[in-house]
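Much of our argument rests on the idea that a fold can be written as discrete symbols. The record that follows shows the chain in one-letter code together with its fold in token form.
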Amino acid sequence: VLRLASQLLLHPSPAQLASQADIIADLAFQRDMLLRDRVDERQRWQSERESWKRTAEALSMKTRAVRESAAREQETQHYVAHLEGDLKTSRRRLADTQARLHALENELSRLRPLLSMQATLLRD
């Protein structure tokens, strides 16, 4: 058995060599296909990764814009509330000033005849 097996290993037949060459060619082809598939798969993953990254950036920018808009809205509301407070204060001051003016005008109208009489008494 050893002699037969060693003889086959040392001197393979042309049919066996052709068969082995076909198998080697098929295996090399399969390897090349697998390598191409692997490269394609990596490119697809990279594209998908970049797509997710762009989507995340877009969502982040949109969220940032919403936050900034909300902050601007809050700032505007604070400013409006401040202006409304100033307006109320100014209206109270105006009402107080008008009340004092009215009181002074009333006092002047009451004092005018007295001042006129006093002026005529001083002239005489």
Remarks:
- The first helix runs from residue 2 to 10.
- The two ends are 167 Å apart (CA to CA).
